[in-house]
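Before relying on records like the one below, remember that each one covers exactly one chain. Contacts with other chains, cofactors or solvent are not represented anywhere in the record.
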Amino acid sequence: MIDYKFIGWNNKDGSDKVWGAIYMEDRTNIRPKVLIFWGRRGKKLQTKMDREGWDLDNLIRAKTQKGYNQIDNRHLKTVYPEFQNDLEKTTMWALLKL
């Protein structure tokens, strides 16, 4: 099961993009690894590995100020039905790079 830190969706002015972060390590670890992902909904997601911390929290705050609305798992299936499959593929490649 994927452990989400943040999933945001920006659909203002026709942009239709997702941005988020998922835990790649147990969140009880000190500064666990997170996978940041972004891209247009339904297209190949780009990724970057990072660590949890205040800089990531600031980035999440900046994304919400830019118009990314946080969405939860229940609403995500309505907004982006194939998101789980797209993210699982992206996560698998990120895990192979670790």
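The mean pLDDT is 84.
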